[in-house]
């Protein structure tokens, strides 16, 4: 038995994290190939996307065939499932939850996660919707949302409308 480790970022054209359902879909697809005994996700100690580890019988299938099968599986899944990563202004947790619920009602959205820090992650079925439709829906519910171009763990300065409003006429303190 031999094993081949392939980085997740090389297997998918879009940015996905190790918790994405497409990883499990790929592993299921790989396990159906003759000569592949098992496959699993290896995550780094910091929880970052790691590698897919594929255990195979070299008497039945070569390492290059396993690599090709993994790349084809990733491309096939990318053609069917899209992934959006967006970031915007920080928001209250209730607002994040409401936006998440609204995104979940958009046809074709399989999973939506909205964090109070402004990070938005959406997985969708490309056969039912597209990025433009999701972005249009997002623009109705959020302000300042833009494509995430940096590491998802470094969001830059965070501001909230609550912290920047005029204090005049308020009879409460924000330290309570």
Offer a few descriptive terms.
single chain, alpha+beta, Alpha-Beta Plaits, 2 domains, four-stranded antiparallel β-sheet, elongated
Question: In words, what does this structure look like?
Answer:
The chain is α+β, with helices and mostly antiparallel strands. The chain folds into two domains: 2-80, Alpha-Beta Plaits (2-Layer Sandwich); 82-153, Alpha-Beta Plaits. Helix content is 34%, strand content 23%. It is built from six helices and seven strands, in the order βααββαβαββαβα. The strands form two sheets. A four-stranded antiparallel beta sheet has the order 5-6-4-7. The protein has a three-stranded antiparallel beta sheet with strand order 1-3-2. A hairpin with a 4-residue loop joins strand 5 (109-114) and strand 6.
Brief summary of the model shown:
The protein has 176 residues and is of the alpha+beta class.
CATH topology of the largest domain: Alpha-Beta Plaits
C-alpha-based Rg, rounded: 20 Å
Low-confidence stretches: 144-176
The CATH C-level name of the largest domain is Alpha Beta
What's the tally of helices?
A: 6
Query: What's the number of extended β-strand segments?
Result: 7
First-to-last CA distance: 62 Å
The structural domain count equals 2
Structural class determined from secondary elements: alpha+beta
Element layout with pairings:
Elements: E1 2-7, H1 8-11, H2 21-31, E2 36-42, E3 51-56, H3 63-80, E4 81-87, H4 93-104, E5 109-114, E6 119-125, H5 131-141, E7 146-147, H6 161-164
Antiparallel strand pairs: 1-3, 2-3, 4-6, 4-7, 5-6
Helix pairs in contact: 2-3
